[in-house]
Automatic annotation (TrEMBL):
Molecular function (Gene Ontology), one example: ATP binding
Gene: prkC_7
GO CC annotation: membrane
PANTHER family: MITOGEN-ACTIVATED PROTEIN KINASE KINASE KINASE 20-RELATED, SERINE_THREONINE-PROTEIN KINASE NEKL-3
Species annotation: Stieleria neptunia
UniProt protein name: Serine/threonine-protein kinase PrkC
SMART domains: S_TKc
Length: 1211
């Protein structure tokens, strides 16, 4: 990729966000750092956050910030250009014997100044350690605010003082990142100036200060390092205090970089009355901050005031970083003098910073500029509910429920985090509506609700972190009763502790108002209203407005209960009831699968057993339905897939038992990993109509498991009832008890070989044959532990386990080396102990769709009957090498007992069937990682991540909306959730609300997106020397081409001798070939067919290819028989196709051509890498660790187009 105006010189690092290059700016000749962010742009959600942050940094023009020279984010190539990196850090300065006082004071004030300007623009660093602060040649500190980019360039070096700059607790939110900067600055000031506790271990105490100034500095440092982030001062305050206290010699350039709006421009004026009251604190007097129109606060250009109240004003403004319209809330200067009020103001910002919810106005920044406290939020354009009620009077039931549903959604996350709003009311709900024709009313049903947003968290309370309001010290106000009387709960009216139930009450009162046109209680004065809230039952809405449903009235009555314990516990609980009213009864997870017939006619069996092992340990075995069914004596099943007109697949099954033939439709299994699994079978013949089998694993207090196995079955007749009573109630119960307890013992005892059954006993003759073959393996010098484990497995394991032995899974199971297991298995197949097969894996379900005895049988495409999917065969992903025990030793059991359980799809965390029109709540416990939400047959396919801290723990998904195909840039409000990328879920517990609006059943799966590491792919196997040596016949059919995905192809050669002897060159070439083959094999590569003057090799991993090249270079230098010859290497990593050449598997295609082209331009004693190979993060880290000196060069392609390569000198 070319970057106009810049010449790339060398690569500095690579990471998940892209590649960092050292480059030269053509116009100036200066050295710069160019960050190619193409990789980051591939993740829409991250790209939005990353680009916004970079746009804010671009506004920061300060000598204490690393300069952002150019930002190019809107189209390809996406990149940013920074000034060159500094070689010295503040940590280096701290290690000097003594830093002179003028310099230390200057560093402290300069750091405070740059943070003041950066924080004023909404830019924070978050990890401001001495090892990350640069020092210019003049000794001035320089902060790189782009270090949040993952580019592999951040130094891993740390300083002993770094840890002192880390607060004991902090989140990743913007508010806490800025507070973290203040904490770190406080530690640095303490160290450099010798004040405070850390100062005792740092420099000598600063001299020349008056006692009052010294005490003030110590107090400042103490406040900067306060445990509570909200107790730390803002950078603006720190900067002013340092300038006021330190000697004039350290005065900074503050006036040069002052922002546009200053405290002198703030005046006072008239009052506008709000309807939120504080009953125990005197209401503030008349106060008006004056009109800030035309001024600038931080990065926000104020346009005009759009609202004002007793505590502050709200302005419409422009965010200069991206041109977006925002709302800026400014605290009146009079109240800025009250620490309690300022803390509550910043509390609101902290609460908002934790919420990423489409129904809550997003916090953009919180700051103070010259004493003016403000916070900026996403601008939501539209009337509030109070305005609409004044216009329409009432709102119809459906729209009212829709509005309340969104209000509840806005509070689900805050309630889960322990935050209570305390002021939910119509005036704090903004509604965006689309009104066709302009004359309709909300009661007509013709209004289209576009968005509902809950605003004003200014009274919100954090139940987890807030101390009692009366315990705030001398500066705090007494415990306050705050809120709006018409919607306040009884406990709120009495000044008692509040909880999420308080907001539930306010939401009920708001819904009451929407439906009836008035709040639940009216009165001549506030005290009368409060008395009614506390003592009078609310009227029933059906008594005040005809036509409302009784179920709606019941929900409102519950929300308005006097005792909080009688209400819904939180917004989530209320939302469940509201959704029930809007869309029908939601189905809880305990009721899934839904029984298709008469519940009353069904027989129910419930078996419970306490087990010693934990649920996580039991799950892999309990969920292995193939092994479990065989172990409890169920018959072999014959499955045949059926494809319907819409492409959906159902499994028809047939089996014989009790002298009868059973035929049934087997619905997809449903499970949540580690918790439960269930299956529904609809019988077409036999004594039963349908059957549901469900297993639940519940953790117990002693670390064990309470296992519950339930069976529901509807018999066809009296004979069916008798059969169920005997087969399920007696025989199945006995067999399940035996197997579950055997599994439990296998996990706790060391003498149990197989979790499902007693070990096999091999006949004497076969045992002798096994011994002969294992002796042969021992003579090959293979790992004896692997040989012993394999022999034991073949002798004792059940026949089912020997039908498909996967070598890498075997290595994981028994804690053995992958390479040793693969080498031993290949040797065992060569000796006749094992038989080699090839599984073809479906890319969707990852289940083997077919099995081949040889690679010659492979074709370009295969078909998965379970998914009804035609897919391209790919050596690197869909072809797996497996083994089966030789029939001369044991007969493997290849019969099928079950095909749909969780064990067949270990990458699937959860799978749920959702009926047409159903809404389902899926509760998960996902770890940090990458996942995929898939729907069949609707085609839903959404990638999402789980992170720490993450954005949300709840996600509403219309499973038939095909969100993956939506345009994330679309501004169409009707596109709903589909118009936004998937959220980053919080780790721990997540809740997915899945709605199926389609006319047919959908199967929804949550899959791990990380590639499986227990698959020995054909791509990897074919690069192994032992495989090529022992199985030369395992090649593709003549003329057959098979895709390989990405392969690393390398070409190497050595220079001719100085004397030019052809014989000597030939001998050296042969010796070099042997040396290359040995080194390449050691790193898991294979030598490929090629010409005599160069050697072609292939690897699955480009980092292994680089390691092999470096080791080969060292081996060449150490080999005295090959003297005075230089090696040259060319390497690329990309797509290839496998083909048979000279009776060997070879890899051809564009990557092979690129390596040939690069090799032509390679130089002696040089490792030449393509851009894509060098930008692999592992390769980039490897070249940095080995201190390889590199440069970027340009060569021509076959089409005479320039392309970039990396040249590294071999050491």
């Amino acid at each position: 990729m070319m970057f106009p105006g810049y010449q790339l010189l060398s690569q500095r690092g690579a990471g998940k966000d892209g590649v960092a290059y050292l480059a030269r700016q053509a116009s100036t000749g200066n050295l710069v750092q160019l960050n190619d962010l193409t990789a980051a742009a591939a993740n829409p959600r991250r790209w939005v956050r990353l680009s916004r942050q970079l746009q804010k940094i671009a506004l920061l023009d300060h000598p204490g910030s690393r300069r952002l020279i150019q930002i190019h984010l809107d189209d390809e190539p996406r990149f940013v250009v920074l000034g060159s990196a500094l070689s010295q850090t503040l940590a280096d300065g701290l290690d000097q014997p003594s830093i002179q006082w003028p310099q230390t004071m200057g560093i402290c004030v300069s750091l405070a100044e740059v943070l003041m300007h950066a924080h004023g623009l909404g830019v924070a660093h978050g990890k401001l350690y001495p090892s990350r602060i640069g020092l210019s040649d003049a000794g001035e500190p320089v902060i790189d605010f782009t270090e949040f980019l993952s580019l592999g360039v951040s130094s891993s070096a740390t300083h002993r003082f770094d840890q002192a700059c880390v607060p004991t607790s902090s989140d990743a939110g913007a508010v806490d990142r800025a507070a973290n900067d203040i904490f770190a600055l406080g530690a640095i000031v303490s160290w450099l100036l010798g004040v405070g506790q850390i100062g005792e271990r740092g420099n000598q105490m600063v001299s020349g200060l008056a006692d009052g100034d010294l005490a003030a500095l110590e107090s400042l440092v103490e406040s900067m390092m306060a445990e509570d982030p909200l107790d730390r001062p803002l950078a603006d305050e720190v900067c002013h205090e340092l300038n006021a206290r330190l000697p004039p010699a350290s005065a900074t350039r503050g006036s040069t970089y002052a922002t546009a709006a200053t405290s002198e421009s703030i005046g006072t004026g008239g009052e506008e009355e709000g309807d939120t009251i504080d009953l125990k604190r005197s209401a503030p007097g008349p106060c008006d901050p004056g009109d800030l129109g035309g001024r600038r606060l931080g990065r926000f250009q104020i346009e005009r005031r759009i609202g004002s109240g007793a505590w502050g004003s709200v302005y419409r403004a422009i965010d200069l970083a991206d041109g977006a319209t925002v709302a800026v809330k400014v605290l009146h200067p009079e109240h800025a003098r009250c620490k309690d009020v300022v803390k509550r103001f910043r509390d609101e910002a902290l609460i908002l910073s934790r919420i990423d919810n489409p129904h809550v106005a997003k916090l953009l920044d919180v700051n103070c500029q010259d004493g003016v406290h403000y916070l900026a939020m996403e601008f939501v354009d539209g009337p509030n509910l109070a305005t609409l009620l004044a216009r329409y009077g009432t709102i119809d039931e459906h729209h009212a429920l829709q509005i309340l549903s969104d209000i509840a959604r806005a509070l689900v996350e805050p309630h889960a985090d322990g935050v209570v709003h305390r002021d939910v009311k119509p005036a704090n709900v903004i509604v965006q509506v689309r009104e066709p024709g302009g004359a309709e009313t909300l009661g007509s049903g013709d209004i289209n609700l576009v968005a509902v947003t809950l605003v004003d968290f200014g009274l919100a309370q954090d139940l987890f972190n807030d101390v009692a309001e009366a315990d705030g010290g001398d500066n705090a106000a007494p415990r306050s009763v705050v809120g709006t009387p018409a919607y306040m709960s009884p406990e709120q009216c009495g000044g008692e502790p509040v909880g999420p139930e308080t907001d539930v009450y306010a939401m009920g009162a708001t819904l009451f108002h929407l439906l009836v046109g008035r709040p639940p209680f009216l009165g001549d004065n506030i005290q009368k209203v409060i008395d009614q809230h506390q003592n009078q039952p609310a009227p029933r809405v059906t008594d005040l407005r005809a036509g409302l449903s009784d179920s709606l009235a019941d929900v409102i009555d519950r929300t308005l209960a006097k005792r909080p314990v009688l209400r819904h516990a939180d917004a989530e609980g209320l939302l469940t009831d509201v959704d029930r009213l809007l869309r029908g009864e939601p189905v809880s997870i305990e009721m899934h699968p839904i029984a298709p017939g008469d519940h009353d006619a069904a027989m129910r069996f419930r078996f419970e057993w306490p087990l010693k092992s934990a649920p996580a340990a039991l799950w892999p075995h309990v969920s292995n339905t193939e092994r479990l069914n065989q172990a409890i004596g169920l018959p072999v099943v014959d499955y045949s897939p059926q494809v319907d007109a819409e492409g959906g697949v159902t499994q028809s099954a047939r089996a014989e038992r009790l002298g009868m033939e059973f035929e049934w439709q087997e619905h997809p299994f449903e499970w949540i990993e580690g918790k439960q699994l269930a299956v529904l079978r609809d019988f077409q013949s036999g004594p039963f109509k349908w059957m549901i089998s469900m297993v639940q694993l519940q953790g117990s207090s002693d670390g064990g498991t309470h296992l519950v196995h339930q069976v529901m079955v509807q018999p066809r007749s009296v004979l069916g009832r008798a059969a169920a009573a005997l087969e399920v109630g007696v025989k199945a119960k006995r067999a399940l008890k035996r197997v579950y307890h055997h599994i439990d013992r296998s996990l706790t005892a060391k003498d149990v070989d197989d979790p499902f059954r007693q070990p096999n006993r091999l006949k004497l003759a076969r045992r002798r044959r096994l011994g002969i073959l294992t002796d042969r393996l021992n003579t090959r010098g293979l790992d004896r532990r692997v040989i012993e484990r394999l022999a034991h497995h073949i002798e004792k394991a059940p026949a089912q386990e020997l039908a498909r032995i996967r070598p890498l899974a075997f290595a994981r199971q028994f804690a053995l080396s992958d390479d040793s297991v693969v080498e031993t298995f290949l040797a065992a197949a060569h000796e006749g102990l094992l038989v080699l097969y090839w599984d073809l894996l479906c890319p969707i379900c990852r289940i083997p769709s077919d099995i081949k005895e040889t690679l010659r049988e492979l074709e370009n495409h295969s078909h998965c009957p379970a998914c009804n999917l035609e897919f391209e065969v790919d050596f690197a992903h869909s072809v797996e090498l497996i083994f089966r025990v030789s029939p001369q030793i044991r007969e493997a059991d290849v019969k099928t007992y079950c095909i749909g359980g969780p064990a067949h799809s270990p990458h699937v965390v959860a799978q749920i069937r959702i009926e047409a029109g159903e809404r389902f709540r899926l509760d998960l416990s996902l770890d940090v990682g990458s996942y995929h939400l898939r729907g069949l047959p609707c085609g839903l396919a959404i990638d999402f991540d789980v992170g720490q801290p993450g954005e949300t723990s709840r996600w509403d998904v219309d499973v038939d909306a095909r969100e993956s195909s939506a345009d994330p840039e679309s501004g169409d409000p009707e596109s709903g959730a589909a118009a936004m990328p998937a959220p980053e879920m919080k780790s721990g517990h997540q809740r997915l609300m899945l709605t199926n609006r389609s006319p047919r059943e959908q199967v929804i799966r949550v899959e791990r997106r990380s590639p499986r590491t227990d698959v020995l792919t054909a791509a990897r196997a074919s690069t192994l020397r032992s495989f090529r040596q022992w199985f030369p016949g395992e090649i593709l059919a003549p003329g057959q081409l098979v895709s390989v995905g990405a392969m690393a192809l390398m070409m190497v050669s050595i220079s001719d001798g100085a004397q030019g002897s052809e014989v000597a060159d030939a001998i050296a070439g042969q010796m070099f070939l042997g040396l290359t083959s040995e080194v390449v094999a050691r790193h898991g590569g294979a030598t490929l067919p090629g010409s005599a003057d160069r050697i072609r090799v292939g690897f699955e991993d480009p980092s292994q290819a680089v390691l092999a090249a470096l080791d080969l270079h060292q081996a060449l230098l150490a080999d005295g028989s090959i003297k005075n010859r230089l090696m040259r290497v060319a390497l690329d990593h990309g797509g290839s196709v496998a083909v048979t050449v000279q009776d060997q598997i070879d890899y051809l295609g564009e990557t092979s051509k690129a390596v040939e082209r690069m090799f032509y331009h390679a130089r002696p004693a040089e490792l030449t890498l393509s851009i894509r190979a060098a930008s692999d993060p592992v390769v980039a880290s490897l070249t940095n660790e080995r201190d390889l000196v590199g440069q970027i060069d340009s060569i021509e392609t076959d089409d005479h187009e320039p392309t970039l390569i990396h040249r590294f000198r071999l050491p």
